[in-house]
Amino acid sequence: MTGALAVGIAGLGTVGAGVVRLLADHAALIEARAGRKVTVVAVSARDRARNRGVSLEGLRWYDDPVALAADTKVDVVVELIGGADGPAHDLVMAALAAGKPVVTANKALIAMRGSALGAIEGASIRFEAAVAGGIPVIKALREGLAGDRIAGFAGIFNGTCNYILSRMRAEKLDFATVLADAQAQGYAEADPSFDIDGIDTAHKLAILAAIAFGREVDFGAVHVEGIRGVSALDIAFAEELGYRIKLLGIARATDAGIETRVHPAMVPLAAPLARVDGVNNAVVIEGDPVGQIVLQGRGAGAGPTASAVVADLIDLARGRAAPMLGVAPQALARRAAVPMAAHRGAYFLRLMVVDQPGVIADVTAVLRDHGISLESMLQHGRSPGDAVAVVLVTHVTQEAAMAAAITRLAALESVQVPPALIRIETA
Amino acid sequence: MTGALAVGIAGLGTVGAGVVRLLADHAALIEARAGRKVTVVAVSARDRARNRGVSLEGLRWYDDPVALAADTKVDVVVELIGGADGPAHDLVMAALAAGKPVVTANKALIAMRGSALGAIEGASIRFEAAVAGGIPVIKALREGLAGDRIAGFAGIFNGTCNYILSRMRAEKLDFATVLADAQAQGYAEADPSFDIDGIDTAHKLAILAAIAFGREVDFGAVHVEGIRGVSALDIAFAEELGYRIKLLGIARATDAGIETRVHPAMVPLAAPLARVDGVNNAVVIEGDPVGQIVLQGRGAGAGPTASAVVADLIDLARGRAAPMLGVAPQALARRAAVPMAAHRGAYFLRLMVVDQPGVIADVTAVLRDHGISLESMLQHGRSPGDAVAVVLVTHVTQEAAMAAAITRLAALESVQVPPALIRIETA
Ligand SMILES: NC(=O)c1ccc[n+]([C@@H]2O[C@H](COP(=O)([O-])OP(=O)(O)OC[C@H]3O[C@@H](n4cnc5c(N)ncnc54)[C@H](OP(=O)(O)O)[C@@H]3O)[C@@H](O)[C@H]2O)c1
Ligand SMILES: NC(=O)c1ccc[n+]([C@@H]2O[C@H](COP(=O)([O-])OP(=O)(O)OC[C@H]3O[C@@H](n4cnc5c(N)ncnc54)[C@H](OP(=O)(O)O)[C@@H]3O)[C@@H](O)[C@H]2O)c1
To answer: What's the domain of life for this entry (chains A, B) (predicted)?
Structure first.
């Protein structure tokens, strides 16, 4: 047992204050698990006067977070400011340059700058909290499944989106209504774009995919769609067809390379992700020879996120280490990114058509022209002259064919509004 | 990067052959993840002539597994023979005495001898495969949730029992029929007692509870009941009441100490464990501040178990270590084991009674005498003179009161067969 691990924390918001509190509240337990004391010695945030609900007595204060890295009494820098650039990035670079290990919850930073950071000689950077909050999914992939070849994974990585979709379904409300209410209740940010447009999910997906497949973090390759276009109508159709709609982050190894995509998806009710509701996160990993592993838990919030940050600190205190992306930088695989147009899957397609003779024949002719075959078709009621919803579920086909067909379908005179398309997944 | 990690494997059955195969098939991937080659150099089993479906060419063979430990070329001993005593125990003791790390899948050994092994100065022993096969639950508890105070956990740890209960429910068959079929199909052993009487689950529970609460492995304290008494009738009643019957291993920290128990339990359909079917394992962990974490996957079989063994080998190759039970032996907590009589929970109670006036009054009077209040009562049809099933669901009460009440109920003249009791859990 060596001396205490001296921690410097930059950022004392939701997560930072949570970490200070956890290290204090569970000090004895953490000392036993870490084999030594883990003690906060210095902190940084913008507003020194702000009450954060935790005691900062006896801790050195820095207005400039970068100064934390230079504090000779600080053994490890915990970055909980956020953002891929600016003070968070400056601090992490300064800490690594000073040879100090870094622990962070910053998914934007790792997704955007992960490869550059990982390439820094001797860099020690841990970020379990950046993906799926309290679920130790990075540890599971990088260590627990280290003997497995990962075929792919699919997950619910954004609690805000999952909360909104869960409430839309349960209460049969539309997106705008639930979003406004979620904002009022603090489940969604005032500027919700980061969450609902899928960017946050894409950050996490890019990080996990790099670890799963042992290759560079490639945020740019991720196909990203959010949940703004998910309608109450399609949620109801999903229900009728035995699906739930979830915003998924999906990564798959195919013969052509690695496919990474974020979009709303229909998931069969019996699949592990279908019943993950509210602010929960979950991920289904397919590995050889382990088979299917499912991990579920709280993906955000002060407690779950602090749990992951402190686990990283305990790993550090115990000297447990792994290369940032599971393998040494020079061992990272070069695997092509598969463009979305090459994706193959089944599709849910909803058209609003004028209910008149010949419309279905026109629609199915377009699909046939693009080699798309149908598994089922659904149409409710009839109202001659009015627009009625026609739902088509396809067999496995290629995204490019689907996109071309949709362009033609949208141009049909009998098709009233842009067709709605939701991909069908089996996870 | 140092030289190869030289592995000696004793036991080349389902798991041992699986490990040899995985190390060969994923050699390059494992080398990248481990930072060095992981190479089998020596093996031991009983029958040298037996075809195990894997190549043993170039490997030193030992008839006596204990001799593996003395092989100076062997860096790590992998024990895959099984059993708490005999050659498995001898081998592990010899390896530890020789200062060699041990990796094992042997839950009986760890459950029965874990505390003694952990107390050996400098002992390095890894056993991720011993609990829940391919699910990295030991790593999750010991490292991933190292900052959390664990309130408890509940899990499905035996695939054979879960398979039998799943089929009994889905096909409305009785226990004996499904067991016989499971044996014919290789899902259950010829001597199934170890699985169906709950012993295997209790081994795993004892191991996980020690890690979760940082105290000695206390197999003797586990209350153990198996699934022989689960009837098709009660499965049907469970269905009607919105429950599934699962064999659970449960550990909880209460004010009085640690409660550990294995028994069939009714789980509400909405709970994470209710829909875990077939040979799957799953565990629900409650931690502070992480909240609820669910881990699910294959709990046995060559592939999932080998995945866990190889993950342990990679940890070893990377120098990642943790104390056997999460904290140093001298830091283990002394926490009382709570006897089953002190357990508090809700109960499902089924009586077969003669359908005559006054019977229900007699039954409810007994419950009242023992301070047991009812949440609901269920009785189907009426057939005067014949035995009918009466189902009672209690509010939370104490096991001791319940046991006393059942003794009195069983003695009532109108009660035809011994009452069936199944505890209700919320996980
Ligand atoms: N919230 C979650 O549930 C969650 C979950 C997983 C990961 N994360 C990640 O954790 C990180 C922190 O998130 P959060 O929710 O805790 O954010 P937050 O509540 O907005 O807190 C940010 C903190 O950074 C400080 N800060 C901002 N700019 C600074 C500067 N220039 N110099 C020094 N300090 C500065 C702020 O100081 P003041 O307090 O003085 O303004 C504040 O304490 C982000 O990377 C986020 O993505 C969060
Ligand atoms: N099977 C699973 O899915 C699973 C899952 C988790 C954990 N485990 C644990 O893994 C261990 C191995 O299980 P298994 O299913 O692989 O067992 P198994 O198929 O019965 O294999 C046992 C092996 O041990 C060898 N052996 C027995 N006595 C020996 C002796 N005196 N000297 C040398 N070798 C001896 C046998 O040799 P021969 O082949 O020559 O007879 C055989 O190769 C057990 O502790 C079990 O609890 C198994």
So the answer is: Bacteria
Same domain? B168 vs B191: yes
CB contact under 8 A, A140 and B145: no
Please tell me the pTM assigned to this model. 0.97
Asked if residue B335 belongs to a domain, the reply is: no
What tens digit of pLDDT does each residue of B346-357 get? 999 999 999 888
For an interface test with B, the pick among A153, A273, A293 (most B C-beta atoms closer than 10 Å) comes out as A293
Would you call B100 a catalytic residue per the annotation?
no
| Same-domain check for residues B76 and B21 | yes
User: Which ligand 2 atom sits closest to the C-alpha of B15?
Assistant: 16
Whether B102 contacts B84, CB under 8 Å: no
- ipTM exceeding the 0.90 mark: yes
Residue A208's CATH number = 3.30.360.10
Decide if A336 is inside a domain: no
pLDDT averaged per 10 residues in sequence order, chain B, 427 residues? 90 98 98 98 97 96 97 98 97 97 98 93 96 97 98 98 97 97 92 97 98 96 98 96 98 96 97 95 98 97 98 98 95 94 97 90 96 93 80 97 97 93 92
Whole-number Å distance between alpha carbons of B12 and B9 = 8
Q: State the total domains in chain A.
A: 3
Q: Ligand 1 atom closest to Cα of A48?
A: 40
Enumerate the residues of chain A whose CB falls inside 8 A of the CB of residue B315: 143, 146
pLDDT (tens digit per residue) in A324-350: 999 999 999 999 999 999 999 999 999
A300 belongs to an annotated ligand binding site:
no
Encoding tokens for residue A316? 């550090």
Alpha carbons A107 and A115: distance in angstroms, whole number: 13
Nearest chain B Cα to A276, which residue?
B272
A134/B290 CB distance under 8 A? yes
Same domain, B126 and B218: no
Give nearest CA residue, ligand 2 atom 21. B13
HSE at residue B399, side-chain half, CA atoms within 13 A, is: 13
Tell if the CB–CB gap between B297 and A292 is shorter than 8 Å.
yes
| Residue type, position B173, single letter | L
pLDDT of amino acid A81: 98
Q: Report the CATH number that the domain containing residue B365 is assigned in CATH.
A: 3.30.70.260
Does residue A81's CB lie within 6 angstroms of at least one atom of ligand 1? yes
Q: Is there a single domain that holds both residue B165 and residue B285?
A: yes
The residues that bridge with A287 in the sheet, in sequence order, are: A150, A291
Please indicate, yes or no, whether residues A11 and A103 belong to a single structural domain of this protein.
yes
Domain housing A47? 5-134+306-330
Strand-pair category, A243-254 with A76-79: unpaired
